[in-house]
């Protein structure tokens, strides 16, 4: 069946549409909230942003969930996933309102980061739950195309949310606070959308659900250990996660590079720099959409590891070809290409994990997946802080990223040939 035909079949599935609506509204709110944070931390006129400051902000917002993430997975395998979407998004709506108040009050940075940390904490549960719930509403035959459509549509929704945030900034005086309040409204809409699905639909199975929080927390250590053992027994899933983590590291290093280039090299004002960054994000979003179209066909022809090999190999060649000039237009082209490559590899990895891991362990494994993404992104920011000058031009960083992509391609190529 063609990609268009599979998409039509998926969109005729009522429960798939409902789960997709929850994702779109939630990730659109994420995009709105993230633009507000970026504007407040990176592009505020009174702040002199450095690579070190960006790395510190990412560490504050993401690293704590390297600890929380696995515990979230154990709870996801015991809590009703529909309830996680409902109460998680309601909580984020309330916390986002608190962030808006703090922005208006001009509080110390640490208090603002604590508020932002609370909002992003709940995000760990929601995103992992969305991935773990997908096989409950789609049959195995169309899981690849569902993995193409759902996360990519969510990424595009986040990009749209970023565009909405830019629009609010143009018409509001207290723009950062107004943007955050818009995100709170969208979180509320996502919570209400989850009510269209039954409590039992998204799993886990009733015999695995522990209604008491204390009981679930008591079994966290044992559950995490069993989840890790299960993943170690599923070698294809472990191998795919390792590869996509390295590719995420590369993407993170280049993301910090684009931030610094947008702020200091490609613009003369903060507003112009934010606009250039918006173009780069839009180009990357277009690459994500292209990946959604190409990945089902490519995985069908090459297999998931073959497609990941092609993606990482192309990145190894194109990153230095487009990046070493440090010019705006080649970097925008690179943003599109790397968006396609990164999302294409993620679609293949999602499919490998979902088909290799038992349903009872998916929540834990996808939470570990999320943790790996966070650690890789923060680690990339830390490396970029050590290597990048103030203007963002570092030949050595671009070459390092290209070498890492090449090593991933070589390792995956051997696996693809064996398969």
Characteristics:
single chain, 419 residues, mainly alpha, Growth Hormone, Chain: A, 15 helices, globular
Task: Report the sheet with the most strands, covering strand number, pairing sense and barrel closure.
Answer: none
Here the CATH topology equals: Growth Hormone, Chain: A
Which value, in Å, is the CA radius of gyration? 21 Å
What structural category arises from helix and sheet content?
mainly alpha
What proportion of the residues form beta strands (DSSP E)? under 5%
Q: Can you tell me the number of structural domains?
A: 1
For the record, the CATH architecture stands as Up-down Bundle
Order of helices and strands: HHHHHHHHHHHHHHH
Residue share in helix? over 70%
CATH class: Mainly Alpha
- For the record, give the distance between the C-alpha atoms at the N and C termini, rounded to a whole number: 24 Å
Brief sketch in words of this structure:
The chain has 15 helices and no strands. With 419 residues, the chain is an all-alpha fold.
Secondary structure layout:
Blueprint: H1 3-12, H2 14-41, H3 51-62, H4 64-76, H5 81-105, H6 109-133, H7 143-171, H8 175-194, H9 213-218, H10 220-233, H11 235-265, H12 270-323, H13 328-356, H14 362-387, H15 395-418
Helix pairs in contact: 2-6, 2-7, 2-8, 3-6, 3-14, 4-6, 4-10, 4-14, 5-6, 5-8, 6-14, 7-8, 7-12, 7-13, 11-12, 11-13, 11-14, 11-15, 12-13, 12-15
């Amino acid at each position: 069946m063609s990609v268009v035909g599979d998409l039509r079949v998926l969109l005729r599935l009522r429960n798939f549409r409902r789960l997709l609506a929850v994702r779109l509204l939630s990730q659109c709110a994420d995009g709105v909230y993230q633009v507000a944070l970026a504007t407040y931390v990176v592009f505020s006129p009174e702040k002199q942003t450095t690579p070190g400051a960006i790395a510190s902000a990412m560490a504050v917002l993401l690293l704590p969930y390297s600890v929380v993430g696995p515990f979230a997975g154990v709870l996801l395998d015991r809590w009703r996933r529909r309830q996680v979407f409902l109460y998680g998004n309601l909580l984020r709506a309330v916390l986002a309102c608190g962030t808006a108040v703090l922005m208006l009050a001009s509080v110390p940075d640490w208090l603002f980061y604590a508020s932002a940390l609370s909002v992003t904490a709940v995000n760990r549960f929601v995103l992992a739950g969305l991935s773990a719930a997908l096989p409950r509403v789609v049959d195995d035959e169309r899981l690849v195309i569902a993995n193409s459509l759902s996360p990519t549509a969510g990424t595009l929704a986040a990009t749209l949310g970023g565009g909405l945030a830019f629009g609010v900034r143009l018409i509001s005086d207290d723009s950062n606070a107004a943007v955050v309040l818009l995100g709170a409204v969208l979180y509320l809409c996502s919570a209400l959308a989850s009510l269209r699905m039954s409590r039992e639909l998204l799993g886990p199975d009733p015999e695995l659900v522990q209604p008491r929080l204390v009981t679930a927390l008591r079994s966290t250590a044992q559950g995490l250990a069993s989840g890790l053992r299960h993943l170690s027994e599923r070698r294809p899933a472990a191998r795919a996660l390792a590869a996509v983590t390295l590719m995420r590291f590369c993407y993170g290093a280049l993301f910090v590079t684009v931030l610094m280039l947008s702020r200091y090299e490609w613009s003369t004002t903060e507003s112009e720099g934010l606009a250039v960054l918006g173009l780069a994000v839009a180009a990357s979003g277009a690459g994500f959409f292209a990946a959604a179209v190409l990945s089902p066909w490519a995985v069908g022809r090459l297999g998931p590891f073959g497609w990941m090999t092609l993606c990482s190999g192309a990145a190894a060649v194109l990153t230095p070809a487009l990046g070493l000039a440090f010019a705006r237009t080649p970097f925008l082209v690179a943003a599109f290409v790397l968006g396609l490559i990164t999302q294409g590899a993620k679609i293949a990895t999602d499919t490998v994990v979902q088909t290799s891991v038992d349903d009872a362990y998916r929540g834990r494994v996808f939470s570990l997946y999320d943790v790996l993404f966070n650690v890789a992104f923060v680690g990339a920011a830390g490396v970029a802080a050590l290597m990048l000058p103030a203007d963002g031009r570092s030949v050595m960083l671009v070459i390092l990223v290209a070498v890492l992509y090449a090593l991933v391609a070589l390792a995956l190529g051997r696996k693809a040939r064996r398969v």
